[in-house]
Design goal:
Helix 3 runs parallel beside helix 5 and helix 6 runs parallel beside helix 7. This protein has a domain of 135 residues: Rossmann fold. The longest helix has 18 residues. By secondary structure, the protein is of the alpha/beta class. The strands form two sheets. Strands 6-7-8-3-9-10 form a six-stranded mixed sheet. The protein has nine helices and ten strands.
Length: 244
């Protein structure tokens, strides 16, 4: 079952065309990668999917809703069904980890403080953080812990979809591989579908079920790692060699 379908997407910034006739689809339950050279529009596409950025033409359909023609109330409802991990965690520095994770619950749900505290404790445990970490501030923790707290917040509302922007960026190799394992565990435990922007070759090999490679404003290649890397193309061979 398809959860996301992008058709003939066109994105323009001033006189610069970023996407022109871009097409892809994401199936339920898979970890789907958005890959490509720097500046090709990977993060732009992710931001368009989560309605943080407008596009000029084409269509993005998520969970059966076409976001270019969605009402504000439907948009709000849709946002509750996904979580986003931004590149550097995007935690609020003035809030503790527990307060950061509780934020979407307080914003979108009508739950008692006791229930929210229980959910926060569960999400912290889910991503491998200790109960005592709940009282720390973002400035007091490592980059890897910030990423884990960010994904705990993204999971607060039990979303069907997770959007991850460069989840291993800035992490040391051990922390990055630990985060790869966390992503796989979360998919296994929760059945959540993930869209991941990444250039981390280890993550590409370790975690992705399928991928789309953006080149020349379109999806140049889409498929599993085996399907994509078997293509007889100088671009593909150079891309994966350079990423290594």
């Amino acid at each position: 079952m398809e959860l996301i379908r992008v058709k003939n997407l066109k994105t323009v910034f001033g006189d610069k065309v970023v996407h022109n006739g871009l097409n892809l689809h994401v199936n339920e339950g898979e970890i789907y990668g958005l890959l490509g050279p720097s500046g090709c529009g990977k993060t732009t596409l992710l931001r368009e999917m989560v309605m943080l950025q407008e596009f000029q033409a084409g269509s993005i359909e998520i969970l059966g809703k076409k976001i270019e023609q969605i009402s504000e109330s439907d948009a709000q409802e849709l946002r509750r069904k996904w979580g986003v991990l931004f590149q550097f965690g995007a935690l609020f520095s003035s809030l503790t980890l527990a307060q950061n994770i509780a934020l979407p619950l307080k914003e979108y749900a009508t739950l008692s403080d006791t229930i929210i505290e229980e959910i926060v404790a569960f999400k912290l445990d889910l991503v491998g953080l200790k109960p005592s970490d709940a009282f720390l501030y973002p400035s007091q923790i490592s980059g890897g812990m910030r990423k884990k707290a960010g994904i705990a917040r993204a999971l607060a509302m039990d979303p069907k979809l997770l959007f991850l922007d460069e989840p291993t960026s800035g992490l040391d190799p051990i922390s990055a591989r630990e985060f790869d394992n966390l992503i796989l565990q979360l998919r296994s435990m929760l059945g959540v579908t993930m869209v991941v922007v990444t250039h981390d070759i280890h993550s590409i090999y370790n975690t992705l079920d399928r991928m789309a490679i953006i080149d020349n404003k379109k999806i140049a290649y889409e498929g599993s790692l085996e399907e994509v890397t078997s293509v007889k193309s100088d671009f593909i061979q150079t891309f994966f060699r350079d990423e290594r």
